[in-house]
Write a structure and sequence with these properties.
single chain; alpha/beta; pyruvate-formate lyase- activating enzyme; three-stranded parallel beta sheet; OB fold (Dihydrolipoamide Acetyltransferase, E2P)
């Protein structure tokens, strides 16, 4: 639904989103790193304790919300211990999705004047380690959707690798795929922009797969 700076997530904003039917149950709240010293160097303006407090408040006021975040690995001066704190944060919060990138110099920023001192090989190693942790967490979270029926907004056709599928998202911003080739009236009449009911038969860390539900 939105990318919000953690300090902007007031109780009033959270409560209004939680009670507005038009707002889907998903928030992206970037953390960028799980270590206070790294956040200070990034000039993020909050501590991990403050970030966690906001996440806990979001979940208290909006229990069924799904959460994603953004993380940068290999920021200037990041040590192994500081990176481990980021992995620890993922285990603690258990985001649905983590958008991760290895740090690279961006001209015009304060950090561009600093030494980019984390070797590329280390950045790649940390990126893959974080992806592995998050894949396990996301797969565990997605198990809750198995055998359930989800309302899905159809976004586009998926024809990669010879597939004939619809691709859409549920209200928690989960990618959902289901076949176009089933010989049912419901599938023949569907089109991009439709809301359909899909029974979930298989899950991965990155998506849900199923078929049109007979309702």
């Amino acid at each position: 639904f939105m990318t919000s700076y953690p300090r902007h997530m007031t109780d009033s904003m959270i409560e209004r989103m939680a009670h507005l039917p038009k707002v889907c149950e998903h928030l992206n709240i970037p953390v960028q790193a799980g270590d206070d010293d790294v956040l200070k160097r990034m000039k993020r303006g909050y501590t991990i304790g403050e970030y966690v407090e906001r996440i806990e408040r979001v979940r208290e006021l909006w229990p069924n919300v799904s959460l994603s975040t953004d993380v940068i690995v290999g920021f200037c001066g990041e040590t192994d211990e500081e990176f481990q704190h980021t992995l620890d944060l993922l285990e603690r919060i258990r985001f649905d999705v983590v958008h991760v990138a290895a740090y690279s110099v961006r001209p015009g920023t304060v950090a561009a004047r600093w030494e980019d001192d984390v070797p590329l090989a280390v950045k790649k190693q940390r990126l893959h380690a974080l992806e592995d942790v998050q894949a396990r967490i996301a797969h565990e979270i997605n198990q809750q959707y198995l055998d359930g029926i989800e309302e899905v907004l159809i976004e586009e056709e998926n024809t990669s690798h010879g597939r004939e599928q619809w691709r859409g998202r549920n209200r928690a911003n989960k990618l959902v795929f289901f076949p176009k080739s089933e010989e049912t009236q419901e599938v023949r009449s569907t089109q991009i922009g439709d809301l359909v009911k899909v029974r979930i038969e298989h899950v991965t860390p990155w998506s849900l797969q199923g078929c049109i539900a007979a309702i």
